[in-house]
Specification:
The chain is built from 30 helices and no strands. The protein is an all-alpha fold and about 625 residues long. The chain has three domains: about 375 residues, no CATH class; about 140 residues, Serine Threonine Protein Phosphatase 5, Tetratricopeptide repeat (Alpha Horseshoe); about 60 residues, no CATH class.
Length: about 625
Amino acid sequence: MTMPLTRRQTEYLLLLAVLAGAFWLFSAGISGGFLFDDYNNLQGLATLTRTPGLESTLAYVLNGLSSTLGRPLSLASFAAQYSDWPGNPGAFKIVNILIHLLNGWLIFTVVRALLRLQQDTRAATWIPLATAALWVLHPLQVSTVLYVVQRMTELSALFMLLGLRLYLLGRESALQNNIRRAYSFMTLGIITGLGLGVLSKENVALMPLLVLVIEFTLLGQVQRPASWRIWSGLFLVLPTLLLVGYLALQFQSFSAQYALRDFTFAERLFTEARILFDYLGKILLPTPGAFGLLFDDFRVSRGLFDPLSTLFAVAGIAGLMTGGIILRRREPVLAFAILWFFAAHLLESSVIPLELYFEHRNYLALFGPAFALVYYATRALRQLEESPIRSVVVVSFSAYLCLIAVITHQEARLWGNPLLQAATWSLSHPDSRRLTYLYADALIKRGYASQAAEIHGGAAERWPGSAVPLIGALEAHCFLDEQGPAISDAVQRIAGQHTEKNELVLFLSRLVNVQSGGDCPTVSTQELLALLNAAQTNAYLSGQRGLILTMKSQVHSGDGNLPAATQALEAAFRARPRLATALDVAVLYGRQGKPESARQFLLSAQQHPRIDWREKQTMNPYIESLLRELAASRQ
């Protein structure tokens, strides 16, 4: 005779079914490719492919470009898949999906622990499962899960949720009067979340604030252990104040970065107010076609009344925040949803001069609204036990979850078809330059160079101040073996290039690669150098000078002019001292039969004061090996 399943067994089976369903939904996007920042962060895996080993792995993991700390844990996860770069993006996406499912399981356990602490046993039956389902299945998560580089966001959330679960385990121990165990788990939770999370992505620094939000709302009426005020002051309040202090100290640096943006500090804050409500609209009322990766066409708020919706957004945020504080005792779940959402956006959607709009910023922020939606739907069902309206609530919420799943599957399928994805996004956002370029790039990769040239030509006319479409058109005409735009026009535009710095350098790099590979007879070496010289003299591109000089070295080397190639690469080293660049300089000297010059340059590079200690630690073995070879060649 088969024993009936217990309630907990039933919950876990249903959770497993939800996670399996989520895997199936997201797996429709596995056939997609790499995009944008994937290349910047993963191209170092090519070194591991050529020379796998501990030293090359450490060199990649410890020299990340995304931030000051370099996000080594995230890079280590990519390094573990080095054999899949660059030909198997689906393998990276599968790992992203699995991490997302693990986070969904943690959401389930966190909600269940919160409800146990509130001693809400009736609510604890289905709310954790439904909240996890809503969070893990939501279409707003697609651009995080299927964009390979956003594994950084997923991993930081993983460690934050793990730390939060440990913290709540400590709070449960406190209710059992096991104070030593309580503080052990609470402290371990904060240290684990912050310590491991910050090595994945720095926005985990918000964890102490988010814990304070939970304590302020959901656990406001739950008894706290003795000396909790002292402990929370050290582990929650102090880190939050240090974060605020750090942002204040960085204000001057932020101001310099705003000078390179097409919006000011005030304009960013006003615009983010509208964007936050746009995020909330996507969370609460998702619609097909509303989701994507880039929203660089989002209208900037130039003032409180331009557009007028800015005023309503700012007033709305003030009203919601005030309401959350006032209602924290009477409606703690609603207060939690409001304060959690805005607190989770405090770094990436406030003062730091980042790009304005990215859906992945909602990865954890979504948790608050999802929890509230499920909680209040469940409460309505309880209050309507004898009412015929109860079935309407059940059907409505079920239909809502089904709608979310359908939209998620549609979005995932779009991510699985790069050409259709680029075309759809470009049509949906006709004012987005980057999506226009993405569509043209997708066409070139699939052999439709003529159509790509037409798109770039139209973009060049539409945005006469941008050099990017002219460079893209030159690349497209390389494959058509016909003359593209006038080089003089491209040089003139590069000299005035401002807001599209990264895209310009990327397109120049691609043109250099095509021309150096002998696939572009329509662009001469002299013309290509004229483009790079214009970029080199542009003050707005000063931060990219090292890359531009490296490209010049590549052009000279491809043309057989090794002295000029060496000179350009030495200049690239001075602009951005990297030991990897120094090794390339030494190789160029070696090709010219100058081993002593190679040796002297390497010795000098090792002592350069601007070389990062992490790079020294990982690259010195390569340099010492080459120095020994050079010394042997002198004998």
